[in-house]
Amino acid sequence: MEKRQQVERSIIKKYKKPIWNRFIGGIKDYRLIAPGDRIAVCISGGKDSMLLAKCMQHLQLYTEIPFEVEYLVMDPGYRPENRRLLLDNAALLGLPVKVFDTRLFEVVDRDRSATSPCYLCARMRRGCLYSRAQELGCNKIALGHHFDDVIETVLMSMLYGAEVRTMMPKLHSAHFPGMELIRPLYLVREADILSWQRYNGLAFLQCACRMTERAAEDRSESKRAEIKRLISDLRKINPQIDKNIFKSVENVNLETLISYRKGAAVHSFLEDYDG
């Protein structure tokens, strides 16, 4: 069996329950794909985006929902060896990627005023992807964020942002009218993605950023690492902690909140207290 076939088979056989079923569940639960969509699957070269691309490729072949896919790679200034690894993996997995070059790393590195270069880079990267996807006639971009990213965001917002918010399964773009962002791996756990990668003997990009030393001082990244460790420790006490964090932002009871915000309006429990 060829490597590509082995990888594809593993997604729908060995990892059917933890990966494929959750991938399909997220798409159905959050209505991520509609007939006629043209979706740019954004590939960074890491494990998450590569798995996402393979899942989307398989789905397009066998779903009853007609949609089109572009496999989009933005090179923000990768070192030659990292770019080669990304392209070699794409070829190995049968992904017909379209690559476009930017000087994003260079631009971010020059901006010494940025207190969070990783955050700035992510925002600029997303803008570049939206723009290129729109040029290709796409109405959606798909990113590889997974279940663990979601629950980490919930805790980060509470502990370091003093608010309750989460990473949404889909969003309308604020700056590119008619464009949406979707996260089809929303219900897939990182541990299962890592297991799938190891099972198939695949080597993906880890951190291909050319500003690693500077990024190491990035507060947002260090805080996310702290949250990962915190969740890992809590999991030893309560194995259901991941699920409970996730469910907490599904089961919000507005009647037990001091206040909440919707758009620019802030609402207090006092508004209805005597009513």
TrEMBL record:
Pfam families: ATP_bind_3
Classification via InterPro entries: Rossmann-like_a/b/a_fold, TilS/TtcA_N, tRNA_thiolation_TtcA_Ctu1
Gene3D superfamilies: HUPs
Origin: domain of life: Bacteria
Keyword terms: Transferase
CDD domains: TtcA-like
GO biological process: tRNA processing
GO molecular function, one term: transferase activity
Ranges for domain tRNA(Ile)-lysidine/2-thiocytidine synthase N-terminal: 39-205
Signal sequence range: none
Designated name of the protein: tRNA 2-thiocytidine biosynthesis protein TtcA
Taxonomic lineage of the native organism: Bacteria, Bacillati, Bacillota, Clostridia, Eubacteriales
